[in-house]
Amino acid sequence: MADPSGNPDTPTSAATETSPAKSSTTASTQPQTCAQCAKSPDTLKQCLKCHSVSYCGKDCQKAHFKSHKKVCASLAQEYVKANEPKMASRSSTSARGARDKGLQKWQFDT
């Protein structure tokens, strides 16, 4: 990952340590090996932008950045779309009925 100044040779803290066994993502989205060296350490650092690749350390992250940056932005967009919080529907008839009943009671009481 590049630093904010645009230097692609300087990785930032755009990766977090994750434990493959304790990750909140599914096994299909969480790589179990380092994207650069293919080792399988106890903890991997996951790309915070796209969440699709993991690295065993900063050296592997830095070495893999040149090829990863080409797909990272599009993968990040897909990740955001898949993990967006969903809003509840406002057209719930039971909620509307309860609200109307409360309004009628309030109008009667005043």
TrEMBL record:
Alphabetical list of PROSITE patterns matching this protein: ZF_MYND_1, ZF_MYND_2
Keywords: Metal-binding, Zinc, Zinc-finger
Segments of skewed composition (Low complexity): 10-32
Gene3D superfamilies attached to this UniProt entry: 6.10.140.2220
GO molecular function: zinc ion binding
Name assigned to this protein: MYND-type domain-containing protein
SUPFAM superfamilies, per database record: HIT/MYND zinc finger-like (SSF144232)
Region (Disordered): 1-32, 84-110
MYND-type domain boundaries: 34-72
